[in-house]
Amino acid sequence: MEDKRLGKPSSVDDDATLVGRARNGDHAALATLLGRYTGRIFLMAMRILGDRADAEDVAQEVSVIAWRRLAELADPAAVRTWLFRVTHRQCLHVLRLRRAHDRIDAVPDLATNNPACDPPRMAESEAAFNALNTALAQLPLPQQRTWLLAEVHGLPHMEIARLSGGTEQAARARLARARVRLAAEMRAWR
């Protein structure tokens, strides 16, 4: 519904109408559309990432992606689902960057004269950490994502299913397969 005098979308416009208007260059329609979902996008990113600054960055990046790529959306009525999938992908990107950064930071600084530092124990921990990273990298990407969401971020199966676009049963099965493979790979570290 449109206010004929002002030419702006009214608050009762559905998502598909707003997408259509935004595609035609109506910045107010895009702002209204993003306004509907930015809070939920932020909360989703916050649940996955556990860091406010990263969640804010992801929400901002999703807004930019929506602005740039809204014309590529096949079904304008599915914009909500599309925005949440974009959010999920951006969160996974942040998690991958963190993991790469953590690998670099995990190498202990053995040059310090810290008496609490136990070099043999530190070396063993580093080797176990590297073995886990190697084992994770060998998992298929869906199993890897599911394992990270469950084990690192503590998300329940239902939430993992919602984020990955599958069923709760599929999320459980992927997690079980990932755990079996990781247990086999990490047997030497028990």
Protein architecture, described:
There is one protein chain. The chain has 190 residues and is mainly α. The protein has two domains: 1-105, Orthogonal Bundle (Rna Polymerase Sigma Factor, Chain: A), CATH 1.10.1740; 119-190, Arc Repressor Mutant, subunit A (Orthogonal Bundle), CATH 1.10.10.10. The chain is built from eight helices and two strands; from the N terminus they run E-E-H-H-H-H-H-H-H-H. A two-stranded antiparallel sheet has the order 1-2. Helix 2 (27-49) crosses helix 4 (79-105) and helix 6 packs across helix 8 (168-185). The longest helix is centred in the middle third of the chain and has 27 residues, at 79-105. Residues 1-11 have low confidence and may be disordered. Residues 131-182 form the RNA polymerase sigma factor 70 region 4 type domain. Belongs to the sigma-70 factor family. ECF subfamily. InterPro entries: RNA_pol_sigma-70-like, RNA_pol_sigma-70_dom, RNA_pol_sigma70_r2, RNA_pol_sigma70_r4_t2, RNA_pol_sigma_r2, RNA_pol_sigma_r3/r4-like, WH-like_DNA-bd_sf.
In short, what is this structure?
The chain is mainly alpha-helical and 190 residues long. The protein has helices at residues 15-23, 27-49, 52-69, 79-105, 119-138, 141-152, 157-164, 168-185, and strands at 2-3, 8-9.
